[in-house]
Write a structure and sequence with these properties.
Helix 7 runs antiparallel to helix 8 and helix 18 runs antiparallel to helix 19. The radius of gyration is 28 Å and the shape is flat. With 645 residues, the protein is an alpha+beta fold. The chain has 24 helices and seven strands. Helices cover 71% and strands 6% of the residues.
Length: 645
């Protein structure tokens, strides 16, 4: 079954703007009258200047759900005129429209180009004094949401989350509860499909809280449906059933308005009633059949949810021992989407099991080989996609730093202009030269440190993916080979399935530590404490006040902790690791001590080089104390001013 299908549908609902899936992304609430506007343009006295630009923009939005070609033509005219009139907000509006129309046609590369151009224009608006803050914020929020959706539908989850989170502070600032609900739900769906159910659960809960504040029942039922899937994956029957039924209370009477969502919820309820220890096959079959009949009532409209209904049906058939029916339904589920996806792996595994029950061992072997091929292909794709997305994130962060630097420079220039009135020309010129020289020197040093740190981090990620995933995938291949030669040996298949689960768990763990949500939202102490709780051998203590550092320093200290604890467990064979974090107004001290076999202080291994580079980039100091057989103590000191969160 394909849980990501719901996310693809929701990606067409842009945070605070409805999307028209057929041709565009925006259905304007002002209901502009395009006929009267076109009559005015062709009249003897057509509008000019600002009024003409306004007419082009009105026609652009008015045609978006009627005629995409005309909408783009008027957007291009508005874009050209915005340069003549130096109208930045209108320019951003026209660029966004062209990007949305490209998105609707599936031209994602062109769409991203126009969205980024619109962001650059909005950056210019932010440093200009001509536009209200609320206008600039509104532009940023819809563009961040649009770009997040663009990455979302292309399965670039890390980038989608990054841009959704950029929009969140704006939604919070203006109290847009419904927008926050959809944002948290989208992020929850992304984390769920990445396999990070803990982060998915937290975001669904935040979405429910915002939905309750909004007073909209749909805004509550929407994330509840996702939360039920999380509890199902965690085998938490009580919470899964309770949450699903709370969502069902909304969707059942409103099923005509939300048929696809209702059908997906029915499939989830069927699976809940098939959970071990709580099986109610009759109830599961009732939900599965209702979902199946709803799908059959309009297969064109329900195409995106077809696999959910078929999957629920064949799972029920398997429980009832109706293997031939289960085989036909499972085959139909796989064939519902001509493209193999990661979600098809579970279908192929179940098909192999069904074929074994039917005595079709050759066909079962083919499906197991298919599982192996897809697992290897998706592991490679995930690895390459992660590295690619991190590169984009790095470049985006560099661009944001340049924008912030430009804003600071403009602020300084205003002060320097004022000082020039009351100071000697020579003194002012000397001051400007000194300021720019120091700023250039600092920027050069920061850039070098950042590049070194990012390079080391990418190498570490590559090594983690190779070391942790390579052995598991090799084990899967060996067990599948054994099963292919001796199809009566079901233990090989079981071993392969267990190793597959381990591989997925390892990948989830790596992805989780690539983007720790707790670090962004709650700070260094909470993030390190959560990481230590996930390592049975680690013990965390904290001294001082729970303060916040600069974001870049918090990220660096988190990854330093991650590297030192992992080295202690993997390389030093430690059975106990103490992590002590001390925060004060004047700086931070991090001590990681283990009882392992010790290391050579002069060893510049893979992990140590990465840690040393990060500490150096922060302007701190690193001390190492170790003796063979007596453990190792790392002490990192960062002199820095910190501030309350």
């Amino acid at each position: 079954m394909k849980p990501k299908l719901l996310l693809r549908m929701l990606a067409l609902w842009l945070l605070c703007i409805p999307i028209h899936a057929a041709m565009a992304q925006y259905s304007d609430h002002r209901n502009r009258q395009v006929d009267s506007l076109e009559v005015a343009l062709s009249s003897a006295h057509p509008p000019k200047g600002d009024q003409l630009l306004r007419a082009y923009l009105d026609l652009m939005w008015g045609y978006v759900n009627i005629d995409g070609t005309k909408a783009e033509a008027y957007a291009q005219q508005a874009l050209a005129m915005s340069y003549e009139l130096d109208a930045l907000n209108s320019r951003a509006d026209a660029l966004r429209m062209i990007g949305m129309l490209a998105y609707g046609r599936g031209d994602y590369e062109r769409s991203l180009d126009y969205y980024n151009h619109a962001l650059a224009v909005t950056d210019s608006m932010a440093v200009s004094e001509r536009y209200e803050e609320s206008t600039v914020d509104d532009n940023y929020s819809v563009l961040y949401g649009s770009i997040g959706n663009l990455y979302n539908i292309q399965d670039q989850n890390l980038l989608a989350i990054e841009y959704y989170q950029k929009a969140l502070p704006i939604f919070e600032k203006y109290g847009w509860q419904e927008s926050q609900t959809i944002l948290y739900h989208n992020v929850g769906e992304l984390y769920y499909n990445m396999g990070n159910v803990e982060e998915a659960e937290q975001n669904y809960l935040r979405a429910i809280a915002c939905g309750q504040k909004s007073g909209d029942s749909l805004m509550v039922a929407l994330p509840q449906r996702g939360l039920a899937k999380v509890y199902l994956s965690k085998k938490d029957y009580e919470n899964a059933l309770q949450t699903a039924m709370e969502s069902y209370a909304y969707y059942h009477p409103n099923q005509k308005d939300e048929p696809g969502d209702y059908m997906e919820l029915l499939s989830t309820l069927a699976q809940i009633h098939l959970m071990e220890g709580h099986k109610d096959i009759a109830q599961a079959e009732a939900y599965a059949e209702e979902s199946y009949l709803l799908m059959r009532s309009d297969e064109d409209m329900m195409a995106s949810f077809k696999s959910n209904a078929l999957g629920a049906m064949y799972l029920v058939a398997m429980e009832k021992g109706q293997w031939q029916q289960a085989y036909q339904l499972a085959r139909e589920s796989v064939e519902a989407d001509p493209n193999d996806t990661q979600d098809d792996i579970s279908d192929y595994v179940n098909l192999a099991h069904i074929c074994i029950e039917l005595g079709r061992r050759d066909e079962a072997s083919q499906y197991i080989n298919k599982v192996q091929q897809l697992s290897e292909a998706f592991a490679t794709t995930q690895y390459q996609s992660t590295l690619s997305q991190m590169q984009v994130l790095y470049e985006t962060e560099q661009k944001q730093q340049q924008i912030e630097e430009l804003q600071r420079e403009r602020t300084w220039m205003r002060w320097l202009t004022w000082l020039s009135v009351i100071a000697l020309v020579l003194a002012v010129a000397l001051l400007i030269a000194m300021v720019f020289w120091l700023r250039l020197k600092r920027r050069h040093a920061e850039a070098l440190a950042k590049i070194e740190g990012e390079t080391a981090e990418r190498v570490r990620i590559a090594r983690d993916l190779h070391d942790r995933m390579g052995a598991l995938l090799t084990g899967i291949k060996v067990n599948l080979s054994l099963f292919a030669h001796n199809t009566s040996d079901l233990s090989a298949c079981d071993n392969a399935q267990q190793l597959t689960d381990e591989a997925v768990h390892e990948m989830r763990d790596i992805v989780h530590h690539l983007m720790p949500e707790s670090l962004r939202r709650f700070g260094l102490r909470t993030a390190i404490e959560g990481f230590c709780q996930s390592i049975p051998l680690a013990h965390f203590t904290f001294e001082g006040e729970d303060l916040r550092l600069d974001r870049h320093k918090e990220e660096a200290l988190y990854y330093i902790t991650h590297e030192l604890v992992n080295n202690a467990v993997k390389n030093a064979a430690a059975s106990h690791v103490d992590v002590d974090l001390k925060m004060a107004d004047t700086g931070v001290r991090l001590v990681v001590a283990d009882n392992g076999k010790g290391i050579n202080p002069h060893d510049s291994g893979f992990g140590m080089e990465s840690v040393a580079q990060r500490v150096k980039a922060l302007g701190g100091s690193l001390q190492l104390k170790s003796k063979p057989g007596e453990g190792t103590v790392f002490e990192v000191s960062i002199p820095d001013r910190v501030y309350n969160s």
